[in-house]
Write the structure tokens for this entry.
Amino acid sequence: MILKNNWYYLGNCVSSFDEDSNSIIPQFQDASDFACVLEDCVPCNFLSSNQIAMPSDICSKIEFVYSDERNLLIGYDSNIDVHYFFAPVN
């Protein structure tokens, strides 16, 4: 799948859930919901690397998947085992 939207950063799997595993971003209910969404994601590519507003501390070599159900982009850095969440710019 090739994504044409621009995307902004929402948070990551470390900062987006509280100590009870409840989500503090509206795209998920809790960590279990995140895991279910992740299972249904599909790999994706972009027309341009400028489409994603990435914080400077995120490695540029992350793999991206897309959730059509949530209209959510998820990047994964396997070196540090962290997922990053992005929403489309409207």
User: Anything to note?
Assistant: The chain has one domain: 2-88. The chain has a mean pLDDT of 90. The first helix runs from residue 31 to 39.
